[in-house]
Amino acid sequence: MIYPEKSGERLHDMLGLAQAFFEPLAELGSITPVGESDLPGDYLTLLAHSGHMTITLEAWHESLVNVHVEGEFREPDRYARHSLLSRQSDGRVVQSGIMRIDLTGLPAEVRRQIEVGETPLGRILIRAELLREVELLALWRIAAGPRLARELDLPQGTIVHGRSARILVEGRPAVELLEIEGFSTLLVERERMPRHHVGESLMPETYWTFEKLGVLDKLTTSRCAKKVGVQFVNSTGQESKPFFFRNHYDHASSETWHVERPEFDQMLFDNATELGAECHDQTRVLEVLFDGDDAATARATGVRLRTADGERTITSRVVIDATGQSSLIANRFALKEMNGHLRKAAIWRHYRGAKRDESGGGVKTLIMHTQDEKCWFWYIPQSNDIVSVGVVGDNDYLLKGRGAPEDALNQEIANCPVLGGYLEGSEALDDLAVAKEFSYTTKQAAGAGWVLVGDAWGFIDPVYSSGVYFAMKSADMASECVVDALQSGDLSAERLGAWAPTFAEGTKWVRKLVNSFYSGNFRVGKFVQEYPHHAGPLTDLLVGKMFSPDMPALFADLDPWLEKMASAPRTGDEPMMALG
């Protein structure tokens, strides 16, 4: 029923009221009564109180809210409506609510403001000094139906919570409410956006995540250089035949980009805002908050932040750690496992005016060995006549006893004549950077209420440009599990981390390929010449198709072949890489 049969009657038929606006009721969702102990921490703060929701909601979201009336019923002294509350700060809908009110005895101006529907009810009653008491009647768990999901911009089936309450005006029940709170995504970045970051050469398989995010058109029309292939240069200066991705797989996804990370990361940051996330830069996560001290059982409850205005504590249902090599959660629980075989370091900078080869309709990532094979270089042509150049080698060799990092970089350039030729006449920019001992993984990818993605989960090596792909793909897979967990109400490690075994299996093959590269015995052209049926699977791995069922067979042959090559003399006329 929409209205009480008698004024002041205590109503519990909130479903009857809801059905007046959500027909059928399945449009609202599946509703179950719960107790305070069943509410997640953020909902506990929002719902389990005797204050008015407008005040609580605006304090929680740090923004005033606007009201938009979706539907209403009117009688001379009765009024009922379904409305949405949205933040003034960004327009995001944060509550779907239904109210019915006995207008008897209310001042005429108060009645007018309520029926106009331009001001939240709580603000009207507070200004009129009529809000005396709010009585909490019940708490609800709702699996969002189609219409409620659209209103709150959530996936259908997402678990949200609400409450029914009544407001006493001058000691008599006057208003009954059903208030349903959505949840929002908060994204924080430590640095000021845009900012520089390593990881500029993408793998083609990032295409599918970009498509899901809706940024393909932005990338295609951006100034980012189109990456159409890779090329290798050995220690004698011999250049391999270029490998063009389209020769292996003729599809839009076979080409990718060399990105400028400030613009690229800003694009993703802005896209998250457009999709409804609340995004803040220059905001440092001081710590992730837990209700325990052991990774196996501790539940993440929120984060403590430092902003320009001071410290702030945010409670949350799920914390996604994407802090890169800072790895806040992994370091807290000692989850990192360093790769002792890959204790590498990297030194890099950008150059203006270096050689560019745009054959094939775009640019290529070049991988160049130094003459003594102790290091290798990446060479990544970008837009605006800029090239990213970085050297990678054993940490101790590259950074100890070599003087300043710039000296070590220049010494290794001199040890790579082909690169020296490419850089002849160019200008070195003043942006030298260093990273070291960056190869690791973690023993646990998720826990109760928390998930690790990207470099916070692990990183292998820059040689095959897998870093950004791992970050994007792990976040893509993890996000599906987060949505599933929120929909089910099960925020366990098992539910949130269901993606991790599949992801770890795929990255295992990339790790083995990286180890093959550093073995000193991986003569790709010779291997493909002897095992031509593995040319396709090897190419799949180089473009990022690491979940291919062909990987076990590839390494069943490659691993023993590498052992054989370790004792085989080099002839000097072995074929260079030629895949397709």
Strand-helix topology:
Elements (H helix, E strand, L loop, with lengths): L13 H8 L7 E6 L6 H7 L5 H9 L3 E11 L2 E10 L5 E10 L5 H9 L4 H7 L5 E12 L1 H7 L6 E11 L2 E10 L4 E3 L18 H7 L2 H5 L4 E9 L9 E2 H4 L7 E3 L2 H14 L3 E3 L3 E7 L9 E8 L2 E6 L3 E3 L6 H5 L3 E3 L5 E9 L10 E7 L5 E7 L4 E9 H5 L5 H10 L2 H7 L3 E2 L4 E4 L3 E3 L3 E2 L2 E3 L14 H22 L4 H4 L3 H19 L5 H7 L4 H9 L7 H16 L14
Structural key phrases:
580 residues, alpha+beta, Chorismate lyase, FAD/NAD(P)-binding domain, 2 domains, nine-stranded mixed sheet, elongated
Structural class: alpha+beta
Radius of gyration: 30 Å
Shape: elongated
Q: How far apart lie the N and C ends? A: 69 Å
Give the second-level CATH assignment, the architecture of the largest domain: 3-Layer(bba) Sandwich
What's the multimeric state? Answer: single chain
Count of helical regions: 20
* Biggest sheet layout: 9 strands, mixed
Look at the structure and name the CATH superfamily of the largest domain: FAD/NAD(P)-binding domain
The overall average pLDDT, rounded, is: 88
CATH level 3 topology of the largest domain: FAD/NAD(P)-binding domain
Uncertain segments are 1-12, 575-580
CATH class of the largest domain: Alpha Beta
* Total of domains: 2
Number of strands: 26
Strand fraction equals 25-35%
Residue share in helices? 25-40%
